[in-house]
Design brief:
Radius of gyration: 35 Å
Order of helices and strands: HHHHHHHH
């Protein structure tokens, strides 16, 4: 009888022990809330990936649907690869247009991701401003002159014929230009 009681107590102890330490769906929700707090704190993508991997390992044996966790993890990994590729482009010194296009693709593709994209958006704005700034520099240059021999042969031939024909004098050209002055914005 004593033996049965000790066996019963052992079984009861093991049963209560397994119940008290078993992971539940409520625990899973707490873990996902912790993950969401990390997202709100705008931690790095590496930290988010690490956290989701831990959650995935921890709750793989209980009957919780982990599909959303797997999807988030896959998306974060793809984002990390894209971000790292952009950094390589940047390190190589690729053109502004290529970097702008790459950043736009990343921002469009991952616009609904849990990662803070404000740094990439700021970088895109800076690159676009830099590109526009270069355009303004070109517009500020007063007059472009074509050096002899640098134009296409057809343009140079037409220019020579025009000069040889001498159909219009400089004063006549200036008069025609003045007639069109009224149409300028």
């Amino acid at each position: 009888m004593k033996r049965h009681i000790s066996f019963l107590f052992s079984f009861l102890f093991l049963f209560l022990f397994s119940i008290s330490f078993a992971l539940t769906e409520k625990d899973f929700k707490h873990s996902m809330n912790f993950y969401q707090k990390l997202v709100n704190k705008k931690v790095s993508v590496e930290e988010l990936i690490f956290t989701l991997e831990k959650i995935l390992k921890k709750y793989s044996d209980i009957g919780v649907n982990l599909t959303p966790v797997r999807e988030k993890l896959l998306t974060l990994r793809k984002f990390k690869i894209s971000r790292d590729f952009y950094r390589k482009l940047e390190a190589r010194g690729t053109s502004l247009d290529e970097r702008i296009a790459a950043l736009k693709r990343i921002l469009i593709k991952f616009r609904n991701i849990d990662v803070d994209l404000s740094g990439m958006e700021k970088n895109l704005e800076q690159l676009q401003e830099k590109k526009v700034g270069k355009g303004e520099e070109i517009e500020e240059i007063g007059e472009f002159r074509v050096e002899e021999g640098t134009g296409t042969p057809e343009i140079e031939k037409d220019l020579e014929e025009f000069e040889l024909e001498g159909e219009m004098s400089i004063s006549e050209v200036e008069e025609e230009v003045e007639e069109f002055e009224e149409f300028k914005p």
